[in-house]
Amino acid sequence: MSSSPQVQTQEPNQEPNQDQTQELNQDQTQEPNQDQNQDNAKEEVKAEEKEEKKEEKQEKKEDKKEANEAKREKKEEEKQDSWKDCIYNPRTGEFLGRTAGSWGKRMFPCHIPPPTSASPKTSSSCSPHPTPPSDAVPSPPQRPLQPGLKMISPNSSFCLSSSSGYNDSIQERNDLCMVGEYTTQDNEPVKKVCQFKRSTLRQCSGLPDPSFGFKEGKPCIIIKLNRVIGLKPEGDPYINCTAKRATSLQMQYFPSEGRLDKMFFPYYGKKSHPDYVQPLVAVKLLFTKEDYNIEQTVECKVEGSNLRNDDERDKFLGRVTFRVKVSE
Fold this sequence. Notes:
The chain is of the alpha+beta class. The chain contains three helices and nine strands, in the order αββαβαββββββ.
């Protein structure tokens, strides 16, 4: 009998062994897990970035809020410092706008002479308010005072009455002075008085019209310059009035052009110049029917000289403002 070798062949449909199947399963499960981990990491990064941006915004808001609070505190401190400086300024040493030396000069306006070799113990008594003797002329201050203006309604209890010192019969006793010239009389024991007659104000004198124009709706307003001892205004001072409105208001002045003549200056005080009368200016407001029942604001200033009329700290220095209303 012949023998033939035995050959073992594997069937093509035979299943793989168990180890190979486990490795395949592991590979298939690892791939989706890795993708999921990457997605989770990206989301975490986005969340962290979002949180960081949110924190940055919050920090910016807080910084802005702190900056605004710092500005507010700085403004409040500046306001407090400005109010404090009005009372006492530590930089200049001023109290209520004046230094200690300035306050001392105002409170004690006297001069103490320095000691000399002849009299080393010389002293001077000082009075806070020294008064000159009754027959002495008060000396004007080194810096001339600036006069104010005053408005007077003539239909009130004013000096243009029958017993007024401005009446022509009384003024006839006074002197006729040189027009446009100062009446200087420093060395004269008795000071003369220049005439200012009531009739100089003509239509606003109260002589032709006792109502001073109020009945006809064209009132007269009297303006006078306050008395200042020793004042000699330079130039050619006069009173000028304007209405504070869009259209101009017609006016008449008495004396002509509202002039304050130099002959009434200087003034020497009540004791040396007892009969002195200051010059007046009358302003007649020529209202029309369109102006009735409307309050009109008028401002008058002294102009044409070195007298001040624009000091914002003193509304009456060289000017005056008043309101007039004529009712039908």
